[in-house]
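Thread: "does anyone have the structure for this chain?"

Original post by V.I.:
We have the sequence but no experimental structure in hand. Need at least a predicted one for the grant figures.
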Amino acid sequence: MNSSLRTPIMNEFRFPNPSNRWSMLLLLLLFSVSLQNCSTSEMENSEPEELIKMVNVETEVLSPEPFNSFLRLVGTVETSDDVQLSAEVSGRVLTHVVREGQRVRKGQTILRIDDAKLSQEVARLEAMVAQSETTWNRVQTLYEEENIGSEIDYLTTKYAFDQNKSALASLLVDLENTEIIAPFNGVVETIFVEEGEMVAPGMPAIRLIGAEQFVISAGVPARYANVVELGDRVDVWFDTQVQDTLAGTIVYVANSIDPSNRTFKIDIRLPSGQSYYKVDMIANLRLNTLSLDQAVVVSEEFVYSKDDGYVMYVKGTNSEGKDIARERKVELGPSFKTEVVINQGLVPGDEIITIGSAFLNEGVRINVVNSTGPVLAFD
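Reply from O.Q.:
Generated one for you, tokens below.
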């Protein structure tokens, strides 16, 4: 056959040259990847995977427990007897019988004022009293027994005698007051006048502090007026003293409110026989304002504000028996520090969700774990 009569489709097959073999392999590889992608897409469309949100949490079973709340106050140490003794007569300070810081007994002389001038005046008045008494006796005898003399003379001599006696008695009192006497057992805190200094009536001379009984005075906010009562126990401690906490007792509760700071005054008696109490020391006080024997108490960090109320989360189960979070509305009661009483919404035996509760809503799946490590929410 003539070679010129062959059509193009009848050409003989020929192998590609070696330079085209790598091109053929690349085409086969791309075709294989395309088939795998199509297969994967068809499997995902036929069997979709369900995504479930779950939170790792820790729980706690509620049980009734005691609840106590306290009020912290700052008070000032005072003593039942703290007075300034003043001079009652004019004169020169003669001597200090005691020194500052010395303990004295009731009735003991603390300071003497020069009484020389008063003594002379007493002697003069004693002579006048004697003279007026003699005159009165004579006039009385003549007038009453012999009817001699007038009634005016009789009354004049009588009143003169009475006035001189009263003046002498007053002067004797002043003479006694030249000594300043301790009105109670105590310690001489301050002597305000020096020996040789002139004093006048009402001028402060000695500060005397009673050492028998100390109290702490403090102001309690008015809102606790129905809580604080006589006889209540108060814990007391001092920042400046290395001592254990003391137990004091409320011995006075004021019946009025101070309008300047809206507080009422209380006094707490301190144990007697202690030497380290000082007047005007600052004391720390702790008053028990509420005690409940049985209460549902939780940490306020697991209580959340929602819709003008408060909620907590407890462990529950869904229809499939899976653990989920249940949202409970709660009514809060009194609180102290980080603890709060639940009045309504929870009961003993409820298993509340603690760690991890911040990630929850109603119905969220939970996984209860014992770990105290970081809690993660994942999808």
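V.I.: this helps a lot. DSSP finds three helices and 24 strands in the chain.
O.Q.: and The radius of gyration is 50 Å.
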